[in-house]
Write a structure and sequence with these properties.
The chain has 6 helices and 2 strands; from the N terminus they run αααββααα. It is mainly alpha-helical. The protein has one domain (6-112). It has a two-stranded antiparallel ribbon. Strand 1 and strand 2 (59-60) form a beta hairpin. The longest helix has 22 residues, at 91-112.
């Protein structure tokens, strides 16, 4: 079942071909494929809180460690957590998946040299 992604919920217009990408660019949550299908979302659309560089409240957010306090209070995060209970995937696991994508990217770059 398809569920609402953060850019749909927030109506930010930062998804690919969104109406505000000229102003702010495409959000990394909308393009992070390592988290595709997490909580039945598209890319990191239902795990945006672990993706660095998302734009929330018209401000580029930093790393997970810097932004999570704010994300924890976000109406979208609270909604996903409630909808996915008891199968909500903890941030530590989501970060592990992202770290795996970084390792794969670095390995591919090394092979191309």
């Amino acid at each position: 079942m398809r569920k609402t992604n953060c850019w749909e919920f927030k109506k930010c217009g930062r998804e690919p071909y969104g109406n505000r990408i000229d102003e702010f660019g495409v959000c990394p949550a909308a393009t992070e494929r390592m988290l595709d299908l997490t909580h039945d979302g598209h890319n990191a659309g239902r795990a945006c809180w672990v993706v660095a560089g998302t734009l929330c409240s018209n401000k580029v957010q930093g790393t997970f460690a810097r932004k999570f306090d704010t994300c924890e209070k976000c109406d979208f995060y609270i909604t996903v957590k409630r909808e996915e209970a008891p199968m909500f995937i903890l941030s530590a696991e989501l970060l592990r998946r992202l770290r795996g994508s970084d390792i794969v990217s670095r390995a591919n770059m090394a092979l191309q040299r």
